[in-house]
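User: I'm writing a tutorial on reading structure tokens. Could you give me a worked example: one chain, its sequence, then its tokens, then a sentence or two explaining what the tokens reveal?
Assistant: Sure. Here is the example chain.
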Amino acid sequence: MAAEGQVAQAIRHGLEMAAIGRWEEAISWYDRALAIDRYSREALFSKGVALINIIRYEDAVRALDVILTRDPDDTEAWLHRGICFLFMGRYSKAIPCFDQVLAKDPDNVTALNHKAASLAEISRHAEAIACFDRILTVRPQDANTWFNRGSSLDALGKNEDAVRSFHRAIALDPNDADSWFEMGNSYQKLKKHREAIRCYDKVIALEPFHIDSVSQKGKSLQALGRHEEADVQFKKAEGML
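And here are its predicted structure tokens:
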């Protein structure tokens, strides 16, 4: 069999192994392909994806860098390189990778989401919000993006705007306990304790052992001067520990 056919066959076997989650075996097949053609883009990229799946991010970056050395415009390689750095917690290195993707594909939702997550992790929330807003021009019904937008707004102290974002998330997913909880926290910061309590009650109805909601409800009751009711909540939270 010609070398080209051997490379294609090895990659095919690797993809078959990857499809059933047998990542190490997939990598061994990609390595066979690369032993014949060390610059095979498909083998390098597939190996990178497999390495990400077994949490070998540094090795994945090395495979992807070979692709980018030969083709600096390969947006898939940049995207997955950024994902590696994001998962390693190296957010400042991840962001430029996602920027490379967005320079060529400004509406790439995956790159926007990962860039926003990286920005939020290093408290660059205003820039994260700009990413979330861009996503929402493409996917206005994305409840998770409304939630993440609300979280960044809350982190900036823009609690009224955060509440509005959480409302949008809840309108799309009424049983999202996380959105109800974070909206309660935003209301609490605004000293709108009755509204906060309604949010915490909703969380508790959805997740009866949500200890943080029970405790936060106690704080809002206390702020309203309803001390006996607050004590009941604090004791209930203690019993959940």
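What the tokens reveal: The chain has a mean pLDDT of 97. Residues 3-19 form the longest helix (17 residues).
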